[in-house]
Amino acid sequence: MKPDKTTNKERIEHVLKAIHLIQTYSQNHTQKSFLQDNKSVDACLYQYTIIGEATANIDYNILEKYKYP
Predict the structure, then answer these.
(1) Structurally, how many domains does the chain consist of?
(2) Other CB atoms closer than 10 Å to residue 12's CB: what's the count?
């Protein structure tokens, strides 16, 4: 059975969780130590991918109400 469509609310929750994880993965690093830690870099890049996918699939009528980069 195909799962139900992910809601906009769930997608926004995915974005917020990904932001939290990026902060967690990078909080004890300097820029130099972060860039030397491949696991942390990869983990953060994966979370950025989640943010991009979730944002790309949020209904446009919601996104157009907010300024974001």
Answers:
(1) 1
(2) 14
